[in-house]
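ok trying this again, last paste got cut off
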Amino acid sequence: MATTTTANRGKQREFSLKRLLTQSSAYLILIFGTLVTLVPFIWVILTSLKPASEIIRIPPTFFPETWTLDSYRTIFSDPNVPLARFYMNSLFVAVFRVFITIFTSTLAGFIFAKYRFWGKDIIFGFILVQLMIPFQVVMIPGYLILVKLGLVDSLWGLIIPSMVDAFGIFLMRQFVEGIPNELMDAARIDGSSEFGIYWRIILPQMGSAIAALGIFTFMGTWNDYLWPLIVITTHEKRTLPLLLTWYNSQHGTRYDLTMAASILVLLPILVVYAIFQRRFVRGITMTGFK
């Protein structure tokens, strides 16, 4: 009996040791991956805080020997860079696209998940096919449509073509399928309309998925470069990615200014993600589970 107990204890210690080694290896890999991901971003931040002469020094320095905010002061005081205007342009496009995409995606996802109608699977299949079509294929037809609508060189020209998002519809459909049908039946018994069921019953339960889709949409819109480059021609209507490219072409050898401008472009995305981080992770992990 004592021999059996001793053997069991030995197996438990061996199992605990293996588990500790496995967890330690996993943490080391994650820490290494985190460092590999963060080092370029940290380098950009530190470079923006260096004087121009120190950036081109050989050998280069990682941490600034002389800390300065001159690059940020130069950007804010540049008369050719109405930074507040560019921020408002990007914010206007991003916010409207987020709200419109969330509304159309949640409504369409609700319909595809909870209703039966002729051609449902075929229509949803066409929506999924759109995920496989490169943007460059529909770029020229999209531009010609904007010309007919008179929306070229307009911020609405960046919003209207993206009002319906195939990925958003797919994400919301997968999430709504996990919501019990009994809630809808109870609402119908209480006399609620179908839109009322969507607005009062389904939508409040989709907070995590909405946060995930909102962050995806906001990041994609904020970082969008090619479509605004085609549509927008007026300098005052440019968004921040266009500003960054233009500023880099004007001050190609001033790496401190380029890095500082990059930080100013990235800040809103970091703030949005920091605020909605928990809901974003929950929305991704819960999607598709019933």
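PB: full thing came through this time. DSSP finds 14 helices and no strands in the chain.
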